[in-house]
Specification:
With 207 residues, the chain is mainly β. It is 14% helix and 40% strand. The strands form 4 sheets. Strands 2, 3, 5, 6, 9, 12 and 15 form a 7-stranded antiparallel β-sheet that branches. Helix 1 runs antiparallel to helix 3.
């Protein structure tokens, strides 16, 4: 290979490529604020208020792992069908600005459920996106739920969760996470080739 051809090949290594970036977390709640400072096992029926959520209907029970004899996989958990026979609807206290064209992913962690019946949970954003999960009958094992959505125009909206049970035994909410896809980051696609080429050029110049 001629010196000129090799130089062109090395410079071609500078052509930009795109490396996928990790999702960006913009909200996370594991109900640590609700159990902060509480000694030992927490178990509180019809708990309020929540730090990040408005309980716009129904009630929730707050507990840590072992409270009420229930599992909890994070700092704190909510039984979404509290002890009044009226399952809860939660809405985030503040609006989130959802940018047009960006894909957002809402993830819920459930530690299982309290009781063995069928349970329904609808979640998403108040004005746009929603997904309904129906649990299986019998003992509930931990499950992770996700829904992804993209707004056509930049919009201010709130997250929500709506449980429709009414028997005091509900799904056990472990955590809520909201992320968005970060734009791809342009990088030198052929950086290894470029470094090798520069090394070879140095050897050719010596010759």
């Amino acid at each position: 290979m001629s010196f000129r051809a090799f130089l062109l090949a090395a410079l071609a290594g500078l052509a930009p490529g795109f490396a996928a970036a990790a999702p960006v977390e913009i909200f996370y709640d594991d109900f640590a604020a609700e159990v902060a400072g509480a000694p030992g096992t927490v178990q509180t029926i019809n708990f309020s208020p929540l730090a990040n959520w408005d309980i716009v209907d129904g009630t929730v029970d707050l507990f840590t792992s072992g409270g009420f004899g229930l599992p909890c996989g994070s700092t704190g958990c909510l039984d979404l069908d509290g002890s009044t026979g009226n399952a809860a609807r939660l809405e985030l206290k503040y609006e989130t600005i959802f940018m047009a064209g960006i894909t957002y992913t809402l993830t819920l962690g459930l530690s299982g459920k309290n009781g063995g019946g069928l349970e329904n949970l609808t979640f998403g954003t108040v004005g746009y996106a929603m997904t309904t999960y129906t649990s299986l009958a019998g003992a509930g094992s931990p499950v992770t739920l996700t829904t992804s959505f993209t707004y056509g125009t930049t919009t201010a909206d709130k997250l929500f969760l709506d449980h429709d049970g009414g028997d005091n035994f509900g799904l056990l909410l472990d955590f809520v996470r909201l992320e968005h896809d970060a734009p791809a980051v342009p990088l030198p696609a052929g950086l290894p080739l470029l470094l090798a080429g520069l090394g070879a050029l140095a050897m050719l110049r010596r010759r």
